[in-house]
Amino acid sequence: MQTKTYETLFNLVKSLAGVNSFTTEENSYILNFTNRRFQQAYDGSEFWPRYLVVGEARTVGADGVVPYVQASKVNVGEFLRIHRNQPFNRNSEIEYDYFVTASGAHIMNIQPSNSTDVYVTYKLEVPTIVFASFIPLEFFYFMAHAVYADFLRMDGQNEKAIVEEQIARGYLDEELGKLDNINNNNSVGRKISTYVNRQSR
Known about the structure:
Blueprint: E1 3-5, H1 6-17, H2 24-42, E2 52-59, E3 65-67, E4 76-83, E5 98-101, E6 104-107, E7 117-124, E8 134-136, H3 137-154, H4 158-184
Antiparallel strand pairs: 1-8, 2-7, 3-6, 4-7, 5-6
Helix pairs in contact: 1-3, 2-3, 3-4
């Protein structure tokens, strides 16, 4: 998947602002704005392909909880679906209901009750952007215009900020539209709930 460097994003924000350089303090603001807008783009969908992990085996604790953090695994950012067996290889696998707390996903009515592994579909944790980071291409133009809008707002140029915010939103909406098209042909995010698949088995 394509990326661009943070430096490229920073240079685009400078171009939009029409300046050759920012002050040290402004550089720090731009980085903070970038992280805030990265989080906004990341939260725009549960199914960004680069942050989606499908059907990974995870250990269930004795209390029936799948924790966010497990040794030799990446951390879970957001639980999406939990299955008894490897999902999406066959027509149907039993999917568990669960609720989430600070300790992880509490599986309801796990069968058999002594199960030690389940298969979790989840979203990776949102990364923190630093000066050496790479920006996902699908977020790049949204972030550049949104960060510039934040800069304008900080500078008291609210009317210009509103225009840039609309431009930024257009870029994000375009990427979310592409994602919707992908998801329409994708069963990972589709869940049909009936009385049959909600029974304990």
